[in-house]
Amino acid sequence: MNKQHIIATVAACAAIHNAIALPEGKPPSTPDEALAELRAGNERFQNGVAERRDLLEEAKDTSGGQKPFAAIVSCIDSRTSTELIFDQGIGDVFNARLAGNVVDEDVLGSLEFATKVAGAKLVAVIGHSGCGAVVGAIDKVELGNLTGLLDRIEPAVARAAKEQKGDDTAKNPEFVNACIEENVRWQVKQLTEKSPILKELADKGQIRIVGGVHDLASGKVQFLADAD
Fold this sequence. Notes:
Elements: H1 3-20, H2 31-47, H3 55-61, E1 70-74, H4 82-85, E2 93-97, H5 105-117, E3 122-128, H6 132-138, H7 146-151, H8 154-163, H9 173-194, H10 196-203, E4 208-214, E5 221-223
Parallel strand pairs: 1-2, 1-3, 3-4
Antiparallel strand pairs: 4-5
Helix pairs in contact: 1-2, 8-9, 9-10
């Protein structure tokens, strides 16, 4: 790689960073700004231009309090750390992580705290490609306490199966992907159906609720148009 190419590459990365970064010191203060920051952070992650962070300094700065702008429900999968894929620092986002990004009473309570009490402006349910929990729900796996968790994904699998023409098993990658997306939609739906607090906040425009799927290979998070 010659010097001119290196300079051009660095300049392009800088341009991407400048175009999508929020003004320094100005955290998102509205639901739309919060979503825009997650999108921008994911773009930075995909393009390898993540913010340089002094994590120890961030830890010290937030030791006396926190003001996250978003609350994210995601899977426990080791490849889906939301701070990394959205390029956020310590104290920026609340995290609720369960296999299959499922929503239960404990998650609802956590999100009610994050929004109503702590002031988060955005709630995002983020699934991911190749989700083992979704595959387990398709295969009707039974294993201790995991069985009950997978039961919370089964309605999404059933909905996806109604639209599926042909192979509706875990051996069909297209069906698995359809179930992953449908599971995000289903879990998003649970937020307002089972939490009057979240519904009221969303109806008043004080928060926004969205869903998306993280592609493990590319790093891209595709937000679903019909999951908000």
